[in-house]
Amino acid sequence: MGYVLRTGIFLALLSAGVWPVAAMADDFKLSNNQRIACGRGLAPGKLNAANCKSYAYIFNTKTSEYYRCQVTVSLTRDNKEILSVQADGGCVKRPRIFDKDSSYSFDSVETEPPNTNSFFGPGGHAIWVSDDKALKVKGCVTIASGLGSDVTRCVDMTFADK
Question: Which of 73, 111, 128, 143 could pair with 123 in a Cys bridge, judged by C-beta atoms 3.0 to 4.6 Å apart?
């Protein structure tokens, strides 16, 4: 009987220690719509260069905070061989969208890379967040101002019965 009791207490303590870690891992979700943009160019000395950049979002489904992640890979080559490959990346934490913890779903999208339609440089991104426990949705747009700071505005969606 003592062996069964000690085993039960051990298993209870073990599961109590593992449960918060497993639950925390479930709080973070990767966005389903990653984007990639690549460009090529000629560098001095008849070198070819290719640059690719991709974005993704990691969302905390409990707090509505999210991270915008970016990876960049650059390749330089001549006519015969690859001369260099450089890679860089990281994630930047963004503020929470809803004030209270709940259970949230989300989706996100990036604008196109700089082109003739992009007035403010790299553009921006949009993120949509809905509360899984209530009829609440926010749409947020972040625009790169071109002046070194981003502008973000979120709008609470209203629901009309037609």
Answer: 111
